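note to self: dont lose this again. the chain is below, predicted strucutre after it. 263 aa total, dont forget to put it in the shared folder this time
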Amino acid sequence: MSRAPLVRSYEESAVLIAGGSSGVGFATALGFADAGVRRIALLARDKERGESAVRAVREHRVDVQVLFLPCDAGDVDQVGETVEEAHRQLGGLDVVVSSVATAYRPELLHRTPAADIERILVGQALPPMLLTRAALPFMRAQGGGSIITIASDAAKVATPGESVLGAAMAAIVMFTRVAAMEAKRDGIRINALTPSLIAGTATARNVLSDGFSKKLFEKAAAQAHLGVAEAGDLAALAVFLGGPAAARLTGQAVSVNGGISAA
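---
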């Protein structure tokens, strides 16, 4: 008879957030701290921003153990070593959130340099795959855990200007679903969040600056009759998926878009 999945409370959980120095990742760190998590590791490439995020989380909740580990989430060796180090320093690993993205602006395919296709595909799709693979052995050993990947509605909705990005996001979503079906036997649940535009983020500022992408996302924002999503909206759902109330939820890709689309 197989053992019951390990599902820890927030207070007992150790959480790792890649891309945790800004945007959705940082908001998710604050969300987990508010939910009762007391052991958090933030991964990011930029040391200064990472250390600043650590200070901000500590100021937000003085009783939280939070650490920063520099890591390029697209480098297989760095990811493996950093996840192992996070597991060691936190004394466990119960939740992993991948909120990593590369700089990208939507553009029609015939205007996209052919040399950029590989960069977009690999830069967007590889980090959550590497992080998931690195976390699995630790979660399998303890009999449970939760992995949350941040993708995009471009995985589900065919949108002009997002051919390559959509391919990368669809890869993340299908990877998440297949990995979830494999990992459920070990008590591990894996889900994806698929936002559209997220107000107040660096990505939003980039795509709304000018040109084709500005027109595209202004039109999308006009369809968000419930309001354009904010980082805190994604963070709230990530915290839910990482907690005990989501113990039987896996293999899902949940859109958070204020009504821009229903996919």
